Amino acid sequence: MKILVVGLGSMGRRRIRLLNQISPKFEIIGIDSNPDRQKQAEDELGIFTQSDLEKTLADMKPECAVISTSPLSHASIVEICLKNGCHVFTELNLVSDKYDENMLLAKEQKKTLFLSSTFLYRDEIKYVADKVANTEGLLNYNYHVGQYLPDWHPWESIQNYFVGDKRTNGCRELFAIELPWIIKAFGEIKSYKVLSDRNTQLPIEYNDNYILLVEHTTGNKGVLCVDVVSRKAVRNLEVYGENLYMTWDGTPLGLKEYDFETKADKNINLYDSVDKQEGYASFVIENAYKNELETFINVVNGKGRAEYTFEEDKKVLAMIDEIEAGNNK
Protein backbone atom coordinates (compact mmCIF):
# COMPACT_ATOMS: atom_id res chain seq x y z
CA MET A 1 0.00 0.00 0.00
CA LYS A 2 1.29 3.43 -0.97
CA ILE A 3 0.61 6.09 1.69
CA LEU A 4 1.14 9.85 1.44
CA VAL A 5 1.86 11.69 4.71
CA VAL A 6 1.19 15.42 4.32
CA GLY A 7 3.02 17.51 6.91
CA LEU A 8 6.38 16.41 8.29
CA GLY A 9 6.34 18.15 11.66
CA SER A 10 6.35 16.20 14.92
CA MET A 11 2.94 14.61 14.31
CA GLY A 12 3.62 13.68 10.70
CA ARG A 13 6.89 12.00 11.67
CA ARG A 14 5.08 10.17 14.50
CA ARG A 15 2.54 8.82 11.99
CA ILE A 16 5.33 7.65 9.68
CA ARG A 17 7.15 5.84 12.51
CA LEU A 18 3.94 4.07 13.50
CA LEU A 19 2.99 3.18 9.92
CA ASN A 20 6.41 1.56 9.53
CA GLN A 21 5.74 -0.44 12.70
CA ILE A 22 2.35 -1.57 11.39
CA SER A 23 3.86 -2.79 8.14
CA PRO A 24 7.37 -2.29 6.73
CA LYS A 25 5.81 -3.06 3.35
CA PHE A 26 4.03 0.29 3.23
CA GLU A 27 5.54 2.66 0.69
CA ILE A 28 5.48 6.05 2.42
CA ILE A 29 5.94 9.40 0.68
CA GLY A 30 6.27 12.58 2.73
CA ILE A 31 5.01 16.00 1.65
CA ASP A 32 6.10 19.31 3.18
CA SER A 33 6.81 22.75 1.77
CA ASN A 34 9.62 23.26 4.30
CA PRO A 35 12.96 21.87 2.99
CA ASP A 36 14.34 21.51 6.54
CA ARG A 37 11.41 19.29 7.53
CA GLN A 38 11.82 17.26 4.36
CA LYS A 39 15.49 16.64 5.14
CA GLN A 40 14.73 15.79 8.78
CA ALA A 41 12.15 13.20 7.71
CA GLU A 42 14.49 11.75 5.09
CA ASP A 43 17.38 11.49 7.57
CA GLU A 44 15.34 10.16 10.52
CA LEU A 45 12.91 7.90 8.72
CA GLY A 46 14.52 7.06 5.39
CA ILE A 47 11.51 8.09 3.32
CA PHE A 48 11.14 9.82 -0.03
CA THR A 49 9.82 13.40 0.25
CA GLN A 50 8.37 16.01 -2.08
CA SER A 51 7.06 19.56 -1.74
CA ASP A 52 4.29 19.63 -4.38
CA LEU A 53 1.14 17.85 -3.18
CA GLU A 54 -0.89 17.77 -6.40
CA LYS A 55 2.06 16.75 -8.60
CA THR A 56 2.95 13.94 -6.19
CA LEU A 57 -0.65 12.72 -6.13
CA ALA A 58 -0.71 12.67 -9.93
CA ASP A 59 2.71 11.03 -10.31
CA MET A 60 2.72 8.56 -7.40
CA LYS A 61 -1.01 7.72 -7.19
CA PRO A 62 -1.08 6.77 -3.48
CA GLU A 63 -4.04 4.78 -2.14
CA CYS A 64 -4.13 6.65 1.19
CA ALA A 65 -3.26 10.07 2.58
CA VAL A 66 -2.52 10.94 6.21
CA ILE A 67 -2.93 14.67 6.83
CA SER A 68 -0.79 16.01 9.68
CA THR A 69 -0.53 19.69 8.80
CA SER A 70 -1.86 22.60 10.88
CA PRO A 71 -5.65 22.35 11.39
CA LEU A 72 -6.78 25.29 9.26
CA SER A 73 -5.14 23.74 6.19
CA HIS A 74 -6.92 20.38 6.52
CA ALA A 75 -10.15 21.11 4.64
CA SER A 76 -8.56 21.98 1.30
CA ILE A 77 -5.98 19.17 1.54
CA VAL A 78 -8.72 16.63 2.35
CA GLU A 79 -10.62 17.81 -0.73
CA ILE A 80 -7.58 17.55 -3.00
CA CYS A 81 -6.69 14.06 -1.75
CA LEU A 82 -10.25 12.76 -2.10
CA LYS A 83 -10.50 14.14 -5.65
CA ASN A 84 -7.30 12.27 -6.45
CA GLY A 85 -8.74 8.96 -5.29
CA CYS A 86 -7.21 8.68 -1.82
CA HIS A 87 -8.68 7.28 1.35
CA VAL A 88 -8.01 10.03 3.90
CA PHE A 89 -6.95 10.02 7.56
CA THR A 90 -6.80 13.46 9.14
CA GLU A 91 -5.66 14.76 12.50
CA LEU A 92 -8.05 16.85 14.61
CA ASN A 93 -9.48 19.65 12.50
CA LEU A 94 -10.69 21.99 15.30
CA VAL A 95 -12.90 23.80 12.77
CA SER A 96 -15.67 22.39 10.59
CA ASP A 97 -14.60 24.05 7.33
CA LYS A 98 -15.90 22.07 4.30
CA TYR A 99 -17.19 19.24 6.50
CA ASP A 100 -20.43 18.78 4.56
CA GLU A 101 -18.70 19.09 1.19
CA ASN A 102 -15.92 16.64 2.04
CA MET A 103 -18.27 14.09 3.62
CA LEU A 104 -20.35 14.17 0.41
CA LEU A 105 -17.22 13.98 -1.76
CA ALA A 106 -15.94 10.92 0.14
CA LYS A 107 -19.29 9.23 -0.36
CA GLU A 108 -19.32 10.04 -4.08
CA GLN A 109 -15.73 8.82 -4.48
CA LYS A 110 -16.43 5.74 -2.34
CA LYS A 111 -13.42 6.56 -0.18
CA THR A 112 -12.85 6.40 3.56
CA LEU A 113 -12.79 9.74 5.38
CA PHE A 114 -11.34 8.99 8.81
CA LEU A 115 -10.93 11.46 11.67
CA SER A 116 -8.41 11.03 14.46
CA SER A 117 -9.79 10.86 17.99
CA THR A 118 -6.86 9.27 19.75
CA PHE A 119 -8.34 8.92 23.21
CA LEU A 120 -11.17 6.73 21.92
CA TYR A 121 -8.45 4.23 20.93
CA ARG A 122 -6.74 4.33 24.31
CA ASP A 123 -7.13 1.26 26.53
CA GLU A 124 -7.74 3.21 29.75
CA ILE A 125 -10.59 5.16 28.17
CA LYS A 126 -12.17 1.95 26.86
CA TYR A 127 -11.93 0.49 30.36
CA VAL A 128 -13.50 3.57 31.98
CA ALA A 129 -16.33 3.63 29.42
CA ASP A 130 -17.02 -0.07 29.97
CA LYS A 131 -17.10 0.34 33.76
CA VAL A 132 -19.47 3.32 33.47
CA ALA A 133 -21.77 1.39 31.14
CA ASN A 134 -21.88 -1.64 33.43
CA THR A 135 -22.16 0.08 36.82
CA GLU A 136 -25.60 0.27 38.41
CA GLY A 137 -26.64 3.77 39.42
CA LEU A 138 -25.63 7.27 38.43
CA LEU A 139 -22.06 8.52 38.44
CA ASN A 140 -20.26 11.82 38.89
CA TYR A 141 -16.81 12.75 37.64
CA ASN A 142 -14.18 15.42 38.17
CA TYR A 143 -11.74 15.82 35.31
CA HIS A 144 -8.87 18.32 35.03
CA VAL A 145 -6.78 18.54 31.89
CA GLY A 146 -4.13 21.23 31.75
CA GLN A 147 -0.65 22.07 30.53
CA TYR A 148 1.14 25.42 30.34
CA LEU A 149 0.93 26.50 26.71
CA PRO A 150 4.63 27.40 26.19
CA ASP A 151 5.50 23.84 27.23
CA TRP A 152 3.46 22.27 24.40
CA HIS A 153 6.13 22.97 21.77
CA PRO A 154 9.08 24.37 23.75
CA TRP A 155 11.18 24.44 20.58
CA GLU A 156 9.01 27.11 18.93
CA SER A 157 7.04 30.25 19.74
CA ILE A 158 3.31 30.05 20.49
CA GLN A 159 2.82 32.46 17.59
CA ASN A 160 4.49 30.09 15.13
CA TYR A 161 1.99 27.22 15.23
CA PHE A 162 -1.73 26.65 15.40
CA VAL A 163 -2.34 27.22 19.15
CA GLY A 164 -1.54 30.90 18.66
CA ASP A 165 -4.59 31.30 16.40
CA LYS A 166 -7.88 31.98 18.18
CA ARG A 167 -9.75 29.61 15.81
CA THR A 168 -7.48 26.68 16.70
CA ASN A 169 -6.43 27.67 20.20
CA GLY A 170 -4.97 25.43 22.89
CA CYS A 171 -8.10 25.12 25.04
CA ARG A 172 -10.15 24.37 21.94
CA GLU A 173 -7.83 21.51 21.06
CA LEU A 174 -8.14 20.05 24.57
CA PHE A 175 -11.93 20.20 24.36
CA ALA A 176 -11.81 18.52 20.93
CA ILE A 177 -9.64 15.74 22.37
CA GLU A 178 -11.65 15.14 25.55
CA LEU A 179 -15.32 15.75 24.71
CA PRO A 180 -15.70 12.83 22.25
CA TRP A 181 -14.71 10.20 24.82
CA ILE A 182 -16.57 11.93 27.67
CA ILE A 183 -19.77 11.84 25.59
CA LYS A 184 -19.22 8.19 24.61
CA ALA A 185 -18.57 7.18 28.22
CA PHE A 186 -21.07 9.26 30.20
CA GLY A 187 -23.77 10.02 27.61
CA GLU A 188 -24.85 12.90 25.40
CA ILE A 189 -24.56 16.29 27.05
CA LYS A 190 -27.93 17.65 28.17
CA SER A 191 -26.73 20.91 29.73
CA TYR A 192 -23.63 22.72 30.91
CA LYS A 193 -22.62 25.92 32.68
CA VAL A 194 -19.43 27.70 31.65
CA LEU A 195 -16.95 29.74 33.70
CA SER A 196 -13.88 31.03 31.86
CA ASP A 197 -11.42 33.92 31.82
CA ARG A 198 -7.72 34.78 31.52
CA ASN A 199 -5.36 33.76 34.32
CA THR A 200 -2.07 34.36 32.51
CA GLN A 201 -0.23 37.10 30.65
CA LEU A 202 0.46 34.82 27.68
CA PRO A 203 0.42 36.55 24.25
CA ILE A 204 -2.87 34.96 23.17
CA GLU A 205 -6.29 36.34 22.23
CA TYR A 206 -8.48 33.76 23.95
CA ASN A 207 -9.44 32.59 27.43
CA ASP A 208 -6.82 30.30 28.92
CA ASN A 209 -8.97 28.33 31.36
CA TYR A 210 -12.48 26.87 31.50
CA ILE A 211 -14.58 25.19 34.18
CA LEU A 212 -17.72 23.38 33.01
CA LEU A 213 -20.49 21.92 35.14
CA VAL A 214 -21.94 19.20 32.92
CA GLU A 215 -25.17 17.18 33.02
CA HIS A 216 -25.61 14.19 30.69
CA THR A 217 -28.85 12.78 29.29
CA THR A 218 -28.11 9.58 31.23
CA GLY A 219 -28.27 11.48 34.52
CA ASN A 220 -24.50 11.31 35.03
CA LYS A 221 -22.87 14.63 35.99
CA GLY A 222 -19.37 16.03 35.92
CA VAL A 223 -17.01 18.94 36.39
CA LEU A 224 -14.62 19.43 33.46
CA CYS A 225 -11.66 21.78 33.90
CA VAL A 226 -9.60 22.59 30.80
CA ASP A 227 -6.70 25.03 30.72
CA VAL A 228 -3.36 26.03 29.23
CA VAL A 229 -2.30 27.48 32.58
CA SER A 230 -1.16 24.55 34.74
CA ARG A 231 2.62 24.58 35.09
CA LYS A 232 2.51 20.84 35.66
CA ALA A 233 1.06 18.83 32.77
CA VAL A 234 -1.95 17.11 34.33
CA ARG A 235 -4.75 14.79 33.32
CA ASN A 236 -6.59 13.83 36.51
CA LEU A 237 -9.89 11.92 36.41
CA GLU A 238 -12.05 10.86 39.34
CA VAL A 239 -15.25 8.86 38.76
CA TYR A 240 -17.46 8.05 41.72
CA GLY A 241 -20.86 6.70 42.66
CA GLU A 242 -22.47 4.25 45.06
CA ASN A 243 -21.06 1.27 43.17
CA LEU A 244 -17.83 2.58 41.64
CA TYR A 245 -14.82 4.68 42.55
CA MET A 246 -11.91 4.98 40.16
CA THR A 247 -9.14 7.44 39.35
CA TRP A 248 -6.72 7.96 36.49
CA ASP A 249 -3.73 10.27 36.25
CA GLY A 250 -3.45 9.96 32.47
CA THR A 251 -0.47 7.60 32.52
CA PRO A 252 -0.42 3.91 31.52
CA LEU A 253 0.14 2.82 35.13
CA GLY A 254 -2.13 5.42 36.71
CA LEU A 255 -5.56 3.78 36.44
CA LYS A 256 -6.92 2.67 39.83
CA GLU A 257 -10.18 1.21 41.06
CA TYR A 258 -11.20 1.19 44.70
CA ASP A 259 -11.96 -2.26 46.11
CA PHE A 260 -14.91 -1.98 48.48
CA GLU A 261 -14.00 -5.24 50.21
CA THR A 262 -10.32 -4.57 50.94
CA LYS A 263 -10.78 -0.79 51.29
CA ALA A 264 -7.78 -0.22 49.02
CA ASP A 265 -7.05 1.06 45.54
CA LYS A 266 -6.35 -1.65 42.97
CA ASN A 267 -4.00 -0.88 40.07
CA ILE A 268 -5.48 -1.68 36.66
CA ASN A 269 -2.67 -2.58 34.25
CA LEU A 270 -3.92 -2.80 30.67
CA TYR A 271 -0.64 -2.87 28.73
CA ASP A 272 1.82 -5.63 27.91
CA SER A 273 4.19 -2.92 26.69
CA VAL A 274 4.09 0.87 26.41
CA ASP A 275 5.59 2.79 23.49
CA LYS A 276 6.82 6.16 24.78
CA GLN A 277 8.74 8.88 22.94
CA GLU A 278 11.17 11.16 24.77
CA GLY A 279 10.24 14.81 25.21
CA TYR A 280 6.51 14.33 25.81
CA ALA A 281 4.47 14.47 29.03
CA SER A 282 4.14 11.18 30.93
CA PHE A 283 0.56 10.67 29.74
CA VAL A 284 1.47 10.87 26.03
CA ILE A 285 2.06 7.34 24.73
CA GLU A 286 2.24 6.03 21.18
CA ASN A 287 -0.02 2.98 21.57
CA ALA A 288 -3.32 4.75 20.91
CA TYR A 289 -1.91 6.69 17.94
CA LYS A 290 -0.91 3.35 16.45
CA ASN A 291 -4.28 1.77 17.28
CA GLU A 292 -6.20 4.39 15.33
CA LEU A 293 -3.91 4.08 12.31
CA GLU A 294 -4.43 0.31 12.36
CA THR A 295 -8.18 0.90 12.51
CA PHE A 296 -7.95 3.28 9.53
CA ILE A 297 -6.07 0.68 7.47
CA ASN A 298 -8.63 -1.96 8.46
CA VAL A 299 -11.55 0.29 7.45
CA VAL A 300 -9.88 0.96 4.09
CA ASN A 301 -9.63 -2.82 3.66
CA GLY A 302 -13.30 -3.30 4.50
CA LYS A 303 -12.85 -4.45 8.10
CA GLY A 304 -13.94 -2.79 11.35
CA ARG A 305 -15.24 0.74 11.84
CA ALA A 306 -14.03 4.11 13.07
CA GLU A 307 -14.70 5.05 16.70
CA TYR A 308 -15.51 8.64 15.71
CA THR A 309 -16.92 10.33 12.62
CA PHE A 310 -16.99 13.71 10.93
CA GLU A 311 -20.73 13.86 11.64
CA GLU A 312 -20.09 13.46 15.37
CA ASP A 313 -17.22 15.93 15.30
CA LYS A 314 -19.37 18.56 13.59
CA LYS A 315 -21.69 18.49 16.62
CA VAL A 316 -18.82 18.59 19.10
CA LEU A 317 -17.18 21.55 17.35
CA ALA A 318 -20.50 23.44 17.40
CA MET A 319 -20.68 22.78 21.14
CA ILE A 320 -17.13 24.08 21.61
CA ASP A 321 -18.12 27.24 19.72
CA GLU A 322 -20.88 27.81 22.27
CA ILE A 323 -18.57 27.06 25.21
CA GLU A 324 -16.00 29.55 23.94
CA ALA A 325 -18.74 32.15 23.56
CA GLY A 326 -19.66 31.60 27.20
CA ASN A 327 -23.15 30.41 26.30
CA ASN A 328 -24.65 28.03 28.84
CA LYS A 329 -26.81 25.20 27.56
Automatic annotation (TrEMBL):
Residues 1-113 form the Gfo/Idh/MocA-like oxidoreductase N-terminal domain. GO terms for molecular function: nucleotide binding. InterPro entries: Gfo/Idh/MocA-like_OxRdtase_N, Gfo/Idh/MocA_Oxidoreductases, NAD(P)-bd_dom_sf. Pfam families: GFO_IDH_MocA. This is Predicted dehydrogenase. It comes from Anaerovibrio lipolyticus DSM 3074.
